[in-house]
Amino acid sequence: MKEKKLNLIFILFWLIALLLVPPLFPRYLLHVFIIAHIYAAFALSWDLLAGYVGELSLGHSLFFGLGAYSIGYLSGKFGVDPWLSIGISCIVTVVWGLLIGLPCLRLRGPYLAIVTLAFQMLFFLLANSLYNLTGGEEGIRNIERVFNSTESYYYLSVFLVIIAFIICYLLVSSKYGLIFRTIRENPEAAEAAGVNIVNYKMLGYMVSALIAGLAGSYQALYLKIATPDTLSMALTFSAITIVAIGGKGTLVGAVLGSYVTTFIFDRFAFLKDYKMLMYSIVLVLCVLFFRNGLAGAVKRVLLWRKMGVDNMPGGGKA
Questions:
Q1: Is residue 215 part of a domain?
Q2: Averaged pLDDT for residues 120-143
């Protein structure tokens, strides 16, 4: 089964399942689903860049944090309408994506990973130390509440992750996705074919930054606070682990991985102080024994079933 067909089937069943959550699950679990959707959108942004474009970002939480702090400043400090603040925060993250990506994407090798990590660490330190500007470790609080019910926030989180998924899906299913894969697998061949590698990498990077910023903006609106944790390396590491669990370069895997990790950490909340250790262990296990993740496992099962049907008497094509 082709990836395109698998994605379409997944979207259909996913939408039906998401609509059934509020009437079937207690309100507390709605909160868990909301967090899962935020992390899924963030993981999708990282997977678009690393899984399809082939550029590793170790400081991807920079854009998540920029989105969160933009909401904090605009809505929390200056009283700007929250919906307008979301739009402005997305512009901010795209501009920073352009400023960081434009010089780095012209280079090959791990330069982008190193530079994004350096920027993330710089902004994390600034967010912690510039108390008058960022609120320090306490962050920016009192962000305006946009809804009075958890159900409304849930449906907005569904809209967020669906939009993130559709943006990525349309991009990677188009000619741009084919070019992304070519650049990832053989940049020399792509360049020899006349492809402007920098421009296409820049497109992927800016879209990735946009989605990450959107996820950070929504988290700040939902939790009504923007803290330095939104700029931490641990957040980037969580996205990497989510994608590893779900399956790199699949989109579906980013969503599945987010549900799995979010609900596991909710179930074992007493292990939250060891989250980085657990992420590390899971990441190593995935790399060693489960490289294609959950999405890869689903594809294999579907392939085995198809082969089994075709091998049955009368099951093959005439």
A1: yes
A2: 89
